[in-house]
Amino acid sequence: MPSTLSYQFSPIGIVHSCYKEKFGIPRQPGLVTEPTARLELIPPYNRLDTLDGLSDFSHIWVHFIFHATASEKWKAKVRPPRLGGKEKVGVFASRSTHRPNPIGLSVIQIGRIYTENNKVFIDLIGADLLDQTPVLDIKPYLPYADKIADAEGGFAPSKAETHNVIFSALAESQCRKYEDLHKKPITTLIKQVIEQDPRPSYLSNQVDREHGISLWDINIKWCARNDHFEIIKIEYE
Ligand code: SAM
């Protein structure tokens, strides 16, 4: 037996995502109903035959690296946003990005599987992944084994409550123009991202403070009002 067991893995793919920074990424997959990313298979796995049969499944498990925080130290206890950033739980009782091995796991609905410019892609619907995330493996989600109807959800037993989102007249017309031009449902994406309140816990009581979130090639300016969130305008980056 070797004294230490260590393994080296290399990615099978890379994620191209609408989320260009961590701020604004939903805290779990499936909270947004639009394609938010696509997975590109990288050589030598960039072959359609590696995906034969996959289109018969609706979801995949995506094993990925929290590459943007991988160099940061892990902590034995963390403060999950669902506990308001106040209470701590053990790292292995959490889905924190700060782990001994910075590996993430998301179950994600798949869209189109296709080739473009000799590259192989899978559209990922509602992915909670940062742009350029390296992917270690994908596997089909097997409902008979993976769906556990009476499972206990600990401190996060159900989806977090969502907030009312209102678009200013300016933001509404900007979004309409964007959709006409790019054929991407940006209004729904913005609404579904902001309604989850992406603010860190320490800012969650502040109203009227302007925030910016990057999605695809635009920056969304928005703020929390007393009883809703307002989308103020969008700016091209
Ligand atoms: N579903 C995954 C899991 O449970 O392992 C991820 C959950 S983690 C709480 C979700 C957060 O990870 C996102 O809100 C985003 O801030 C962060 N994230 C996503 N991709 C990342 C990456 N490549 N590097 C670092 N952080 C990332």
Q: Which range best describes the helical content: under 10%, 10-25%, 25-40%, 40-55%, 55-70% or over 70%?
A: 10-25%
CATH class value of the largest domain = Mainly Beta
| Average pLDDT metric | 96
Second rung of CATH, namely the architecture of the largest domain = Beta Barrel
Estimate the strand proportion.
25-35%
Unreliable spans are none
Structural class: mainly beta
CATH topology of the largest domain: Elongation Factor Tu (Ef-tu), domain 3
Give a structural overview.
The protein has 237 residues and is mainly beta. The chain folds into 2 domains: 13-145, YaeB-like (Elongation Factor Tu (Ef-tu), domain 3), CATH 2.40.30; 165-235, 2-Layer Sandwich (YaeB-like fold), CATH 3.30.2310. It contains 3 helices and 12 strands, in the order ββββββββαβααβββ. The strands form 3 sheets. A 6-stranded antiparallel beta barrel has the order 1-2-7-6-3-8. A 4-stranded mixed β-sheet has the order 9-12-11-10. Strands 4-5 form a two-stranded antiparallel sheet. Bound molecules: S-adenosylmethionine.
Q: Summary?
A:
By secondary structure, the chain is mostly beta strands. The chain contains three helices and twelve strands, in the order ββββββββαβααβββ. Helices cover 11% and strands 32% of the residues.
Any chance you could write out the topology, listing elements then pairs?
Layout (H helix, E strand, L loop, with lengths): L12 E5 L17 E7 L17 E7 L11 E2 L10 E2 L12 E14 L2 E7 L8 E7 L2 H4 L18 E3 L1 H14 L3 H9 L15 E6 L2 E7 L4 E8 L1
Parallel strand pairs: 9-12
Antiparallel strand pairs: 1-2, 1-8, 2-7, 3-6, 3-8, 4-5, 6-7, 10-11, 11-12
This protein binds S-adenosylmethionine (SAM).
